[in-house]
Predict the structure.
Amino acid sequence: MRRPIVAGNWKMHGTRADNARLIEELLGGHPDRAAAECLVFPPFVYLQEIGRLVRDTPIGLGAQSVCAEAQGAFTGEVSAGMLKDVGCSHVLVGHSERRWIYHEDDQLVARKFAAAQSKSLVPILCVGEHLWDRENGRTEEVVSRQLDAVIDLCGVAALESGIIAYEPMWAIGTGRTATPEQAQAVHAFIRERIGGRDAKIAKATRVLYGGSVKASNAAELFAQPDVDGGLIGGASLNAEEFLAILAACGSR
Ligand code: 13P
């Protein structure tokens, strides 16, 4: 049994008041009734406050990135221990915006995955290809490389307490969602790739889909056998929309 997850990545949006209001609205929408686990990923500076608001509620808290180092002279960075300290249970590593805009490479992402686990945070490893990779038939090559970097550094057993999110870059914030068949094909490939190392872990690992998920397309994506929920960007900033996505996941 893989319990599905619906996670809202708020990216760099909203004021302190907006973020607090969003969480109040989500809590008012009874996320406890959903079959899926519900997680939110607010901007760093609001984590502590949101952490207080979600304590002892069914909403889990995560950060959008983490430093690969444990502590020291790394100006501007935030460590896994600090995230744990303010109540985070999860953290995104290798989000495509981190890879593409901030040039985080596969090895750095793998070290971030390890840093998160060293503090008992659950890393959500984001993988996904550019449009030009897909058009040149290189989706599986790119996703394998991103996945293998983590398995090579941390071992396949590390995936047992991690989560994977497939986010094709051409679908992020573009309104162009992968079709359920396209998502399923890559999710099945990811499971197969992990299965090449360990069949039991492949079966147990949750693989989320992200990229222009909305209330109107969530159910058909989540109905795919290897899609274990979603990582939601834009649509997670609207409580009603996000709660509808959460409900759609519950009904899979
Ligand atoms: P959108 O849902 O806005 O396409 O963003 C997806 C994403 O990047 C979630 O991490």
